[in-house]
TrEMBL record:
The lineage of its organism: Bacteria, Bacillati, Bacillota, Bacilli, Bacillales. This is 6-phospho-beta-glucosidase. One of its GO terms (cellular component) is cytosol. GO terms for molecular function: 6-phospho-beta-glucosidase activity. Belongs to the glycosyl hydrolase 1 family. The active site is at E379. GO terms for biological process: carbohydrate catabolic process. Keywords: Glycosidase, Hydrolase. It comes from Bacillus taeanensis. Its EC number is 3.2.1.86. It catalyses: 6-phospho-beta-D-glucosyl-(1->4)-D-glucose + H2O = D-glucose 6-phosphate + D-glucose.
Length: 480
């Protein structure tokens, strides 16, 4: 038998990933305005808010806690944290800019200098350590003013506000950032539009009409951003970002296979088709017809989307999804804002997310076969309870096992012929969970002494996985 030596390409972009609203804190500092994450409560209440209609986008401290307000205080501690990223050998650091640091209300005519200066300092610190920033333009933090005054991405007017925002950051950071992404996990809005689109569906509304009209506005906005990026920063690369989860049929019953295919098309391919192929896919026309969706598409929209497609596709991958048309009597399994039925062949994390490294290889093959553009795994990781031992060590072998198996799967995909740009596992430093607002759901190589009740010293500690990942990067994925 021939043993194939799987190697990651030279210049592979190893690093880690975070989001502004989950680690920065300083929610009221630097003239920053309120965003969606600032008003989402912590703990189990967050999932209820995400699922139920009628959320008022207000802060109620008597009722809820708000862990994002302080998060892990990266706003003041970024130098310390970036030094730790550099010690691991990061080539890149995927982060996001908080829209409300640049335009506090979203609709100002001039950008906020304090916010612009903050990210200047962060980018300068990264470059000092030889780390390239990979910047998400909008990561679950739409300005609350745009939510309340315009209805979020329901309104076409928001496109103009977004255009002003992207022009401001492209012009300011054109010499400091060469990797960009437009909307984080844009397809997640199919299940939870509140975080990325700025509205919840009211009971009397046609859910799909509202969501797909908002999608259209985002596709136009994304294309405007791609056009502006290529004009303002020649040589920069700008991508889309999708929440990726391959959809398996529960069995070989053709009805279930078809059901899984339709879920795969809608969830994994629709937004990718719009960003990479630059057009509405054939399958969506029937979906629109069956769900009474009629889009308001203005003159020039489709041409803009067609002409300004992304340079690469970025994706998050945590789990696969198993579906059955009739779920009666079957155990449901939770996931990254998704829910399917339990896969009997897979184990699950502490939060019930099924662990499926082969699914990552499957996903990478499926996406590359469909789009033939470079892929970038910008989120992947294991949320788990970590224990600090008496000697101060954190022995997170379970996290190492998870990441090792997924890196091996990426290596297999590269050998399959997939063009893979890089890998930035999620929550390289512990941060606030997006879906549950918890600190106890930890992903990082770096432990932060901050807890669900708000207590803690904020001290940073290196976990066992810190040293393991350092060796992975140094060996370009050879030493796992």
């Amino acid at each position: 038998m021939t043993v194939v030596n799987k190697q990651f390409p030279e210049g592979f972009l190893w690093g880690g990933a975070t989001a502004a609203n989950q680690l920065e804190g300083g929610f009221h500092e630097g003239n920053k305005g309120l965003n969606i994450a600032d008003v989402l409560p912590g703990g189990k209440e967050r999932l209820r808010v995400l699922k139920e209609p009628g959320f008022n986008f207000e802060i109620d401290r008597e009722k809820y806690t708000y862990p994002n307000h302080e998060a892990i205080d990266f706003y003041h501690r970024y130098k310390e944290d970036i030094a730790l990223f550099a010690e691991m050998g990061f080539k890149v650091y995927r982060m996001s800019i908080a829209w409300t640091r640049i335009f506090p209300n979203g609709n100002e005519l001039e950008a906020n200098e304090e916010g612009l200066s903050f990210y200047d300092r962060v980018f300068d610190e990264l470059h000092k350590h030889g780390i390239e920033p990979v910047v998400t333009i909008s990561h679950y933090e739409m300005p609350i003013n745009l939510v309340k005054e315009y209805g979020g991405w329901r309104s076409r007017e928001v496109i103009g506000f977004f255009e002003r925002y992207v022009n401001a950051i492209f012009n300011r950071y054109k010499d400091k950032v060469k990797y960009w992404m437009t909307f984080n996990e844009i397809n997640s809005a199919l299940h939870f539009p509140i975080m990325s689109m700025g509205f919840s569906i009211e009971k009397e509304e046609n859910k799909y009409q509202e969501i797909f009209q908002a999608f259209h506005h985002q596709f136009v906005a994304s294309s405007i951003a791609v056009k502006a990026c290529h004009e303002i920063i020649p040589g920069a690369q700008i991508g889309c970002m999708i929440l990726s989860a391959p959809v398996y049929s529960y069995d070989c019953n053709p009805e279930n296979v078809m059901y899984a295919l339709q879920e795969q098309q809608l969830f994994n391919y629709f937004c990718g088709d719009m960003h990479v192929r630059g057009k509405y896919p054939a399958f969506i026309k029937r979906f629109f017809k069956e769900h009474n969706v009629t889009l308001d598409i203005q003159e020039g929209d489709l041409e803009l989307i067609k002409e300004h497609t992304v340079d690469y596709m970025a994706l998050s991958y945590y789990m696969s999804l198993t579906q059955k048309k009739d779920k009666t009597g079957l155990e449901a399994t939770p996931g990254n804002l998704l829910e399917g039925v339990k896969n009997p062949f897979l184990k699950a994390s502490d939060w019930g997310w099924e662990i499926d490294p082969i699914g990552l290889r499957i996903t990478l093959n499926q996406l590359y076969d469909r789009y033939e553009v470079p892929l970038f795994v910008v989120e992947n990781g294991l949320g788990a309870y970590d224990k600090v031992e008496e000697d101060g060590s954190i022995n997170d072998d379970y996290r190492i096992d998870y990441l090792r198996s997924h890196i091996e799967a990426m290596g297999e995909a590269v050998e399959d012929g997939v063009e893979l740009m890089g890998y930035t596992p999620w929550g390289c430093i512990d941060l606030v969970s997006a879906s549950t607002g918890e600190m106890s759901k930890r992903y990082g190589f770096i432990y932060v002494d901050k807890h669900d009740d708000g207590s803690g010293t904020m001290e940073r500690k290196k976990k066992k996985s810190f040293y393991w990942y350092k060796d992975v990067i140094e060996s370009n994925g050879e030493n796992l």
